[in-house]
Amino acid sequence: MLLVKDPFQIGFTTDHPNGAPFTTYPIAFKWLMDKKSREEMLKNGVHQKATTATTLSDIDREYSLYELAIVTRAGNAKTLGMKDRGHLGVGAIGDVAVYKINPERYTGRDLEKAFSAAAYTIKDGQIVVKDGEIMAVPMGALIRAEGKVKESLMEDMLEDVKHSWRDHYSINFNNYAVQDVYAPKEKVVRS
To answer: What would the DSSP string read from start to end of the chain?
Structure first.
């Protein structure tokens, strides 16, 4: 990520569960934004052979808050064609996280602490968390793509999935569906 010139060309993920859970995002953000934190991790956090096998210590780039917002929000929304997300302009749904960070001066420790607990979390324009206290619990929306698939292909695919399901899962396929009551709001993304 540190070698990409245009942050709109990539999206941030830790590839959970194989890479790391989302709870480690603050640490990864710190590494992207603070070279000293990366150097400390390379010196004290990984085996020396891993450190010498990479050129990470030679990379001086540090992400700005603006670039971090692109790779974690704006770029992903743009890639998915979701015009109501990833920005603060007219027509945006109003999902915002506010962090206690001085954009002019911060350390890696400041970044990790701030990204670990947002001062405010706003969902659909409503404050849901303020200084760690839950203020509201609004129902989110199910986001799904609407694709066009030939009925015969869909039937064949579903049959293959059910067969594989039977062989590899302990839960019956018919019991796995999420009922509509758990997703009362729905947003369909059309290509």
So the answer is: -TT-S-GGG------TTTS--GGGHHHHHHHHH-HHHHHHHHHHTS-HHHHHT--GGG------HHHHHIIIIIHHHHHTT-TTSSS-STT----EEE----TTS--HHHHHHHHHS-SEEEETTEEEEETTEE------EEEEEE----HHHHHHHHHHHHHHHHHH-SS-GGG-PPPGGG--EEEEEE-
pLDDT along the chain (191 residues), means of 10: 94 75 91 95 92 93 95 92 91 92 89 94 94 91 84 92 90 83 82 65
CA 49, 7, 115 angle in degrees (round to 5)?
75
